[in-house]
Amino acid sequence: MVTPTPAPRDQASESDEGIMVNRLDLTGDAVQYWSNPNNIHDLLYDGHGLWAATYGGLVRWVDENDYRLYTVRDGLPSQAVATLALDGEGRLWLGYADVDGWTVRQGDEWQHYDTRRQAVEANHGVLLGASRTHPRMWVTRGESNWVWLPRGDGTVQAYDGNRWRVYGQDSGVTAKSHWVGVSPEGRVWAVGQGVSTAEEGELWWDDHTFFSEVTGAADVTGVVVDDEGAVWIGFANQEGGGLIRYNLAVDRWEGHLPEINPAIPAQVYALELTTDGSLWVAGQGLLSYRAPYRRFHSYELGDLRVLSFARDDQGQIWLGSDQGLYWLDLETEEIHGPWVIPSPLPDNQITGLAMDAEGIIYVGTPRGVSWIDAQGETDLLSDLGVTWLGTCSDGTLWAATSDGLGRFIGEGEFEWVYEQGAVLAVWLAQEGMAYFVTAEGVLMQADSIGPDSIGPDSIGPEAGEAEALVDMLIWTGVLPGNLVVDSLGTIWLATAEGLAQVDANGTRMLHTADDGLLSKDVRAVALDVDDTLWMATARGLARRRNDGRWTRFTVESTGGGLRSMDMLDVSVGPLGDLWMATHAGLSRREPEETRWSYLDVPGAQRILYDGRGGIWVATRAGMYRIAVDALAAP
Q1: Domains along the chain?
Q2: Do the Cβ atoms of 526 and 512 come closer than 8 Å?
Q3: Helix, coil or strand: residue 141
Q4: DSSP state of 428
């Protein structure tokens, strides 16, 4: 069992400057929130100061030791600030990762619009004169009164001051289009799962398939349209990244890739087209630029992963990274920084939550695992990035990573039990059996797991210790989200193609909407003490009793207790109560079927009940601690 030793309060809680660093300061507040404001997704200089968009809030930097952090306490609807823009009156606009609307700074106050349409209709004129737009918020061109923007649901829309026009797949716009760009001559591009284009005012869009390096909408990191009407797309994925350009005039894709041109970042995260037509590109270890019809030049940035950049009035280039704020000296080509804000979390993307027998909470992220005790003391247990966390019956903390599966056997010491590639989902059974799914989609079963029991020579049925049961990709075509194993040894897996069932004798079955699900897209599955299955789906909650009887729950049937049909997670608490994360917030169902309660929490993805009256909620933008009493009846 891992038993972290809290550092003395005067060492762990405060830095030399007296700033709270390693303490979460647990209070009796109904809702508390923590996030790391040092992962900078967007930067903007407004002529007076530098603004940094982070999933830990909005930061205004004056100098290294002078900053202001704006959060939900200041009136923002969410701390997951993703994008920044500047309208014609010099007002700052914010877009979010988990809230559909926008927020504008009015003097010293913040005004939030619940929908993008409300924001555009109320501010159409000043948005047209914007000095800095964003392709995930809105774009315009000088000769037109049309404002173009992604709608948030994969379609794009435009407003001309009087009328809205919406373009989706029925008009030829490719699926999952969350980026939009427009040329000075009125050629509009929508980018997502693919690329589509039309002249402003046309109904039908031409579809252009992505260049082979871009495998999906999630790869896209930036979009700009140049003066020739061609679209530039930055991308990054596990295989690499770079730039691609589609020139409609010659009907051709052009690849600007690091393996061909070393002046291109290996992974591109930000693009900008300046008023002189120069293209600037930021990414892994490089900041590059290209004047029109010229070759790329680059500044070497070492191991720095640049996610955003901005120039100030003095021409100084500021670099937003996943480690804080840096600046580049153009004369010496040296980078300086980072400027950081103290934070108890190593990363805002929380990939795992677990609690051991001592009541210590473990928080897994791509940058490490932290622990939190009942007094609010916290520290970094390990810098190992994880994809899953869990504890077995003896309280030992287990972790899945991009390299395999293992357990913590001491304070920060990790013992591998499977080290042959990424593990995505795990179930630890009471009898010492482990079930897990690899990144290749293979469902594995391992018994007698120990430090040397799972290795290159022990994988396979003949070893009797780790057995490949099912290739899920061959069977279902998709990777599972999570899995549970009931008392009969039946394995249940959540997949986008249905609830997968693998019996102990090897029999397989895929349950879909024809069987009792509201949607075949099952995001998570949980197991009750009596082998009752609960399934969070894209269109509601489903229950399957151990006798095979199904029940479906909707927003209407629960009287609003289920906050949204778009569900992300479901888990069973120690008292048999059900906890759910939905697109609209957190829901709870007590063992008595008619007792529901809820709290709207933006971006909830994972839930853990601590047994002390608190709910820990993981999001892409940080972590909440919510008192159970804060939930209200519908």
Answers
A1: 37-134 (2.20.25)
A2: no
A3: coil
A4: E
Q: Taking Cα atoms as reference points, which of 446, 407, 444 lies closest to residue 423?
A: 444
What is d(CA 34, CA 24) in angstroms, rounded to the nearest whole number?
8
In order, the DSSP letters of 331-362 are: TTTEEEEEE----S-S-S---EEEE-TT--EE
Q: Which long-range contacts (CB under 8 A, 24 or more apart) does 489-492 make?
A: 491/427, 491/435, 491/443, 492/525, 492/527, 492/533
pLDDT at 127: 98
- The candidate with the shortest Cα–Cα distance to 311, out of 47, 38, 64, is 47
Asked if 122 and 113 touch (Cβ cutoff 8 Å), the reply is: yes
CA-nearest of 371, 376, 373, 377 to 389 is 371
C-beta separation of 192 from 151 below 8 A: no
Q: Which of 91, 101, 163 is nearest to 129 (CA)?
A: 91
Give the pair of three-digit tokens for residue 521. 């897209």
Rounded to two decimals, the pTM is 0.74
Task: Estimate the share of the chain in helix, then strand, then coil, as percent rounded to the nearest 5.
Answer: 5, 45, 50
CA–CA dist 507, 174 (Å, integer) = 39
Question: Which ranges in 345-410 belong to alpha helices (H)?
Answer: none
pLDDT at 621 over 80: no
What pLDDT sits at residue 213?
64
Contact in structure between 434 and 426 (CB atoms under 8 Å): yes
Under DSSP, is residue 227 helix (H, G, I), strand (E, B) or coil?
Answer: coil
